[in-house]
């Protein structure tokens, strides 16, 4: 409750402000009239202290202060809170619903949702018994249970469908759908619930559910412009998703056909392949056919040229099965790091590992397809590796290779 002293402080604050303005205009002269008794006890308090105590009065609050300044509850504020829950459940819920509506009108969706939460909670709360120690006289009012139940049902329906709008605006689409379902359990013909549920389902790409809710709404009101527009959006979205799905299936079918064709092409050429758990990242480089669905078309391979004695390498993204190694070495040489000019077209030899772990000499003037079709080598992880060595150092490297294999 509000105390006379605090009201007196409010007037004292106004009086001090008036005195301050008079002081500025009267060259420092102060009014000589005595303060009323109720205001005398706070005469010595500062303006800041008066404002602090005034802020505890609900009438003058600018910020929420739930204390009385001494660590106890603010009785005035608690009294206002209690007023919100006085009356029948329908009256309490209706009060919260109206406050929620006020917030929704200015698009304060979070606050509106909170009021609708309170309204629904009030409707579902058990009736409270009067406190015998409160000393409050309870006036019993005769209510028609049937009418009261009808009011409660109408308020609950309105709160659920309005809370669905709040959740829709806050992008809480699943909560929106749940609130619409609660609304429709109370009234299966609620157009707003059907519309908002359909819109939320559309946003989540739950198109069958969206179409069902929209269709039910149009069955109730075929001329509803919002539902008609929403139905068009659902149909357009379904058409778009169907097109995407068709395109995805076609890509997968084509990829499967290309893979089968490539396997057939390799098999016909007796080229062996193998995959490991440590495949390198070749980006878009791959074993491929010039015409992916024609096994007789030309094959090409990614090839890694290794210079093991110098720890260098070159990568050839597309090496045709009909091309020879010397054709590529011709434009690669001279090597920028070969200061001793050891790597020349006639001065190098090429070696490839075999499927049993040995080495074969790869002819520089032999087509790559013939080398791979010999059955001695294999394409590992979609990549061919060829070691290039100066002829003078080849024998020493081969011996070292053998030692490493046997240890």
From TrEMBL:
Pfam families named in the record: Wheel
Keyword presence, Repeat: yes
GO cellular component, one term: nucleus
UniProt superkingdom: Eukaryota
A molecular function (GO) term: Hsp70 protein binding
Domain Cns1/TTC4 wheel: start-end pairs: 292-401
Keywords: Repeat, TPR repeat
SUPFAM superfamilies, alphabetized: TPR-like
GO terms of biological process kind: protein folding
Family stated for the protein in its record: Belongs to the TTC4 family.
PANTHER family hit by this protein: TETRATRICOPEPTIDE REPEAT PROTEIN 4
Protein name: TPR repeat protein-like protein
Species per Swiss-Prot/TrEMBL record: Lojkania enalia
Lineage summary: Eukaryota, Fungi, Dikarya, Ascomycota, Pezizomycotina
């Amino acid at each position: 409750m509000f105390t006379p002293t605090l009201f007196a402080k409010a007037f004292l604050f106004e009086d001090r402000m008036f005195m301050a303005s008079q002081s500025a205009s009267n060259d420092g002269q102060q009014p000589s009239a005595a303060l009323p008794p109720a205001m005398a006890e706070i005469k010595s308090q500062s303006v800041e202290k008066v404002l602090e105590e005034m802020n505890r009065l609900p009438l003058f609050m600018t910020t929420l202060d739930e204390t009385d300044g001494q660590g106890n509850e603010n009785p005035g504020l608690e009294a206002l809170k209690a007023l919100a829950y006085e009356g029948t459940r329908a009256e309490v819920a209706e009060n919260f619903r109206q406050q929620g509506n006020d917030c929704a009108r200015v698009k304060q969706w979070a606050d509106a949702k909170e009021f609708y939460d309170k309204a629904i909670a009030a409707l579902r709360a058990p009736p409270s018994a009067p406190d015998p120690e409160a000393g409050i006289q309870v006036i019993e009012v005769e209510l028609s249970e049937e009418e009261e139940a009808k009011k409660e049902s109408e308020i609950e329906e309105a709160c659920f469908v309005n809370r669905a709008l709040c959740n829709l605006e806050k992008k809480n689409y699943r909560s929106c759908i749940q609130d619409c379902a609660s609304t429709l359990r109370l009234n299966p013909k609620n157009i707003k619930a059907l519309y908002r549920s359909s819109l939320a389902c559309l946003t989540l790409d739950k198109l069958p559910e969206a179409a069902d809710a929209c269709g039910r709404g149009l069955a109730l009101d075929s001329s509803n412009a919002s539902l008609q527009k929403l139905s068009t959006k659902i149909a357009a979205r379904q058409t778009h998703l169907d097109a995407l799905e068709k395109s995805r299936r076609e890509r997968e079918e084509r990829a499967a056909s290309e893979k089968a064709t490539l396997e057939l092409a390799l098999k016909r050429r007796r080229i062996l392949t193998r995959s490991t758990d440590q495949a390198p990242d070749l980006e878009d480089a791959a074993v491929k056919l010039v015409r992916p669905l024609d096994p007789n078309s030309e094959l090409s391979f990614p090839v890694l040229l290794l210079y093991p004695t110098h720890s260098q390498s070159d990568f050839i993204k597309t090496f045709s099965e009909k091309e020879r190694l010397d054709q590529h070495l011709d434009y690669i040489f001279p090597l920028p790091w070969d200061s001793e000019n050891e790597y020349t077209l006639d001065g190098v030899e090429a070696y490839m590992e075999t499927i049993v772990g040995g080495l074969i000499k790869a002819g520089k003037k032999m087509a790559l397809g013939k080398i791979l079709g010999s059955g001695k080598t294999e394409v590992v992880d979609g990549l061919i590796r060829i070691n290039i060595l100066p002829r003078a150092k080849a024998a020493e490297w081969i011996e070292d290779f053998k030692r490493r294999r046997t240890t």
